[in-house]
Description:
seven-stranded mixed beta sheet, 20 helices, alpha/beta, six-stranded parallel beta sheet, pyruvate-formate lyase- activating enzyme, Rossmann fold, 15 strands
Amino acid sequence: MSVLRAGSYVSCTVKKNDRGRGDLMRVTFVALGWEQLGVSLLSAIAKQHGHQVDLAFSAALFNDRYNLSIPALASYFDDRKDVLSAIKRQNPDVLAFSALTGTYQWMLDIAREVKRTRPDVKVIFGGVHASAVPERVLAQPQVDYVCVGEADAAFPLILKAIEQGAPAAPIVNTRYKLSNGEVVRGPQTGFVQDLDSLPIFDKSLWEDHICVDDWYLTMASRGCPYRCTFCFNNFFARLPEQKAGKYVRQRSVGHMMRELRLAKRRYKLRFLEFEDDVFTVDKKWLKEFLFCYKREIGVPFQCLTHPKYMDDEIARWLAQAGCRYVQMGIQSMDEEYKYATIKRYEKNEDVERAMEAMRKYNIRVKVDHMFGLPGEPLEAQEAAHKLYVKYPPYRIQTFWTNFLPGTHMVAQAKTMGLITDEEIERLNDGTDFDFYRRSTKAGDPQKVKFYKAYEVFFKLFPVLPQFVRQRMHPKLFLRWPAWLCSLTSFMADALIGLVSRNPDHITYAKHYLYHVRRSVLGRMGWKIPAPTRLRKDNIAAPGAGVTDEKSTGICVPEDVLVQTR
Length: 565
């Protein structure tokens, strides 16, 4: 699943309204793969301003542009025509895209095709990729506006400007083209400080495409306290022209509980995920929120953390509130390298302390582990192996280094001779970003072979008996062909899902089964019910543009969460 952890970054298309309905316009967001919280938020903002909002969704079966790619199946289940048909049926005044580097070219193709038959539609691109290279994105003939950074303030101003026929002045956090081709650049302002001033996420947008109740996705904060060189936060935090306010911001407990109470009244909630970069960053807030969550919501959940923001007390609070799984980035176990190169400042003892705390309270840990970090000693993999033997995660989620536009890692890789100017151009165009699995300077065949051996071992690791983990060495897989390594890694990951019954895996499988069935039966003229099951007495969806309950009745813990024995 996605993984996209990007706040409110979106792209949108708008045309002047010819329906004589005041400021009411039709806005269509285009998304693929899974829910994007940035789109959910901007949908709520648009509805607040009286606009009609629709979604054109691609399930991206067997080609999610990042993890899973099976070309033969992807071709059979390609739903590009369905997306275009949905856009035609919705007849939008505004077409909106929130693009990652991996999805950017697909979204450009959709915008190009729509513009071919509807040149009056205005297209705006936002998201992480557009924020990294806005001028390059705006240079595309099918793109009219580019939102840079957080789009909360820019989005409604763009809609208003286009409704009036043309922007009267530069728009904050926006680049756009005039009819003569001249580019207008609005001021790059600071980040929204009061997150409670924003509406809650519009979940109704996704109910016909995603099982919102099985896996309810939300966010309590924005921003990350760290600037890892490979992460979008590395450049995103530097976007404002003048430093103003905090980058890490938190919704109030009352605002969060309002959303979750509404969600519980509308859906039969089974599991929640908090998509914050570091959910545990504010310990005082966390204590109060978890007390309220346990008392009023009581649904199992998972979250993301960082070794420096996890201790015995936090682990106890999480476990008592219903936290079943925690995802934590480790990436590398070479302390010196992490400090000097990728700007991760936790010590190995911080990692071990966090792992020990979560083990103590039976919280299952999924770790993020990266291969191919520029300049990382190969010995770092063995150090990680020792850590995983001592503190076995329920899953080791492996990533191959992707160079993202705008990040410091791109400059580092160029200095090391691992990436060429030509490759950087392809990266900025979104045509190639997975350099370690291609025949480039970065993809040294021997190193790739070494990493693939460790990847197979780490994927198998959680299902191996402890004595096998201690005695088996990844070098066993060095002689395996690359295709067998990749297949084994995929099958091992699927097996872990079945064995662990983690909702992440189960929801992912159900999502695939639903959309495969929908695609096959749809070709036969049959329709199947929407995946989201609503309560019989359901209220309007959170963020759907109606008047919701007010943020009252905040629980105030005393010594909160009684320790269980």
